[in-house]
């Protein structure tokens, strides 16, 4: 019985991991290619959630799940072109300050527009319910989140591995100077990567809006975890981030089972452990320009 | 020439924090009475702080429209208290630079304690409008600190009476989830005493970190433990998250909680809001002054006030009424006046007064219970309310802590 229950917590942890995955992947992509630690990534997640709440009454949740990430990706386009693009080659501290400022502006704007109180938003009726597998219980909606996450991960992986676009991006991560020497400008690729990354964050926000409190601080709350996932997974490693997200979810589930007050702390302890044993993260690649 | 900043050592320290805030020019106290409002505007208590600010603003406007305090206009200053360290620094700045007549606000028990220490040293009145911890009225009490917010004992006995009537306590097993910080620990202690005294047993108990947003591991634990009732002693926006995910997992155990604010029920939304909870006041209270407040707040903020708004509004009215009756803004005189048992209209059926022993406002409370989704008319009226607790024939102290439970000695 106890073993079965622990197994149930492990599987549930994998579902929790899927929540972090979409955000962490984008964060990792922007950092790998642009060298920018995007502290505003959580803000795009929050904006995605609020757009979903605002748009759902008119276009439905099904519509919002498409439109909200697209709108946020367009916002990402504007911000990348006007602001981020000035900082790719500069001191990393500058882009850190810029994105930190952006995150604060976004949080305060959401507070001014929608108020500080949580905005009510529920799972649409057609997605509600639970799935029982023997003794185990799953929320139908979380399984859908998992499915969406798996689709996005597969899509992103194919994009990076199987397309000309992906080849340039991967080359850009490893050696931007060589890419430039071959006469390829990374700028449009960087714009596209930022749009994809913030779009994924907004998609995560959209998916999480019905099951978590929609408040201006939701972005800051999730961002820390996304960072931990990226650090554990290792820089530049696609599957590292995927594995780390799942491990973090499982560790949280097991900590909640064994010693609840350490539910959050367990994840940070895991990060410390990984950094001690493998400073580049679980699957981190050696990237010359960051050494 | 008005003096902008007097460079004292303490002032310089506080001034460091002041660089970030909008500089406000300090006039002498002669033409206005300044009241410093200090409460969390960001973080997990920020949603409640917004109601506090709106309500305090409304109260100041009404006080000024009625002639102000001793013929002088009230001028409100607002700050985000952030955390205990910042709260302490900002309280000091209010007193030393802005020369406020008193400080109103706070929600976080640890920050309220920090402000309490500052006002005790500076001999300035502070009315705590949102921190519930019994310790603030007991071991950590201060002579210059008063409480319009209810204490945890009052919250526990109010919701406790309601769930006792629903048959959820005697001989039942409970599973308690508690926010892992000062407020939660204090609440858990008081809750366990009540539940134990009334014959309930423990099926499970977890302390939950305040940053936690995903409760699914705990929902699985609840499902495995099969308690008769789930006791949710979480804090702030966490309650909203918990209620949403509890509905998501379709768990059916009855829920009750001992710490609550109506904004959290509104945030969870119709269908997700479940269970029985205590509130110090709610917008459906049917007395003339309560209805007038609700209407005025609605007109100003576009939504009904919640209990945090009530508390700040009431505190402001207590201050104005006391200072007008005394014809003085002297803090020590106001403290003595309140300790003598001055009565106030607190927007409930019976008048309230501050208990001299621990400075807690003695007043009625309400237990609210979620309405079934098909009975909900709009996004705000999503609960039904008990009659005022304690009942009309009981002493207002019936639900408050006893001298044995909570000892306050007012350190000098």
Can you characterise this structure?
The complex is a heterodimer of chains A (291) and B (412). Chain A is mostly helical. Chain A has one domain: Orthogonal Bundle (ABC transporter involved in vitamin B12 uptake, BtuC), CATH 1.10.3470. Chain A has ten helices and two strands. In chain A, β1 and β2 form a beta hairpin. In chain A, α1 crosses α8 and α8 packs across α9. Chain A is globular. The model of chain A has no long low-confidence stretch (mean pLDDT 91). Chain B is α/β, with parallel strands linked by helices and 412 residues long. Chain B folds into two domains: 220 residues, Response regulator (Rossmann fold, 3-Layer(aba) Sandwich), CATH 3.40.50.2300; 163 residues, Rossmann fold, CATH 3.40.50.2300. In chain B, the strands form four sheets. A five-stranded parallel β-sheet of chain B has the order 2-1-3-4-5, sandwiched between helices. Chain B has a four-stranded parallel β-sheet with strand order 7-6-8-9, with helices on one face. Chain B has a three-stranded antiparallel β-sheet with strand order 10-14-15, covered by helices on one side. Chain B is globular. At the A-B interface, α1, α8 and α9 of A face α2, β7, α7, α8 and α9 of B. Chain A: Belongs to the binding-protein-dependent transport system permease family. LivHM subfamily. Chain A: It holds the Pfam family BPD_transp_2. Chain A: It is a multi-pass membrane protein. Chain A: It comes from Teichococcus aerophilus. Chain A: It is found in: Cell membrane.
């Amino acid at each position: 019985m106890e073993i079965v229950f622990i197994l149930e917590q492990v599987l549930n942890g994998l579902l929790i991991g899927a929540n972090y995955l979409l955000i962490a992947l984008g964060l990792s992509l922007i950092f790998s290619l642009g060298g920018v630690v995007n502290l505003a990534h959580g803000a795009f997640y929050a904006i995605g959630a609020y757009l979903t709440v605002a748009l759902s009454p008119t276009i439905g949740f099904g519509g919002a799940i498409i439109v909200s990430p697209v709108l946020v990706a367009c916002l990402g386009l504007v911000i990348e072109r006007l602001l981020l693009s000035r900082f790719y080659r500069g001191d990393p501290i500058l882009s850190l300050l810029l994105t930190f400022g952006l995150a604060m502006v976004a949080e305060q704007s959401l507070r001014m527009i929608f108020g500080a109180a949580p905005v009510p938003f529920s799972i649409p009726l057609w997605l509600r319910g639970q799935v029982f597998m023997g003794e185990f219980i799953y929320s139908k909606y979380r399984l859908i989140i998992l499915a969406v996450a798996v689709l996005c991960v597969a899509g992103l992986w194919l994009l990076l591995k199987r397309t000309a676009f992906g080849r340039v991006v991967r080359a850009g991560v490893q050696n931007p100077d060589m890419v430039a020497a071959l006469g390829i400008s990374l700028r449009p690729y960087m714009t596209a990567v930022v749009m994809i990354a913030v779009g994924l964050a907004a998609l995560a926000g959209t998916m999480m809006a019905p099951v978590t409190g929609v408040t201006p601080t939701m972005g800051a709350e999730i961002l820390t975890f996304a960072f931990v996932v990226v650090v554990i997974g290792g820089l530049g490693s696609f599957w590292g981030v995927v594995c780390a997200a799942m491990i973090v979810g499982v560790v949280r589930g097991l900590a909640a089972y064994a010693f609840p007050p350490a539910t959050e702390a367990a994840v940070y302890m895991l990060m410390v452990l990984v950094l001690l044993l493998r400073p580049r993260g679980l699957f981190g690649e050696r990237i010359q320009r960051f050494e | 020439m008005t003096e902008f900043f007097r460079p004292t050592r303490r002032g310089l320290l506080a001034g460091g924090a002041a660089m970030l805030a909008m500089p406000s020019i300090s006039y002498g106290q002669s033409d206005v009475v300044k009241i410093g409002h200090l409460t969390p505007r960001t973080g997990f208590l920020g949603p409640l702080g917004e109601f506090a600010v709106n309500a305090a603003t409304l109260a100041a406007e009404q006080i000024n429209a009625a002639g102000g305090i001793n013929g002088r206009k009230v001028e409100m200053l607002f700050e985000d208290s952030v955390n205990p360290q910042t709260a302490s620094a900002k309280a000091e700045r209010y007193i030393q630079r802005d020369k406020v007549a008193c400080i109103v606000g706070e929600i976080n028990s640890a920050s309220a304690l920090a402000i309490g220490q500052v006002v005790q040293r500076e001999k300035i009145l502070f009315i705590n409008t949102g921190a519930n911890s019994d310790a603030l009225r007991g071991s950590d009490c201060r002579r210059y600190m008063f409480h319009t917010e209810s204490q945890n004992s009052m919250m526990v006995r109010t919701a406790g009476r309601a769930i006792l009537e629903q048959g959820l306590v005697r001989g039942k097993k409970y599973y308690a989830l508690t926010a892992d910080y000062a407020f939660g620990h204090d609440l858990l202690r008081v809750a366990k005493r009540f539940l134990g005294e009334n014959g309930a047993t423990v099926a499970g108990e977890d302390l939950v970190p305040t940053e936690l947003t995903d409760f699914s591991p705990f929902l699985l634990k609840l499902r495995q433990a099969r308690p008769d009732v789930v006791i949710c002693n979480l804090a702030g926006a966490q309650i909203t998250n918990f209620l949403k995910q509890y509905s998501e997992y379709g768990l059916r155990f009855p829920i009750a909680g001992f710490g609550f604010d109506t904004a959290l029920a509104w945030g969870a939304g119709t269908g997700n809001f479940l269970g029985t909870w205590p509130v110090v006041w709610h917008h459906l209270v049917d007395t003339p002054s309560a209805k007038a407040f609700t209407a005025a707040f609605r007109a100003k903020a576009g939504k009904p006030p919640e209990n945090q708004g009530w508390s700040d509004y009431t505190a402001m009215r207590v201050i104005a009424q006391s200072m007008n009756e005394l014809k003085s803004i002297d803090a020590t005189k106001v403290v003595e006046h309140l300790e003598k048992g001055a009565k106030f209209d607190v927007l409930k059926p019976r008048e309230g007064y501050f208990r001299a022993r621990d400075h807690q406002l003695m007043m009625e409370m309400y237990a609210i219970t979620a309405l079934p989704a098909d009975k909900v008319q709009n996004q705000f009226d999503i609960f039904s309310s008990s009659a005022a607790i304690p009942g009309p024939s009981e002493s207002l102290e019936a639900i408050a802590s006893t001298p044995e439970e909570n000892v306050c000695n007012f350190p000098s």
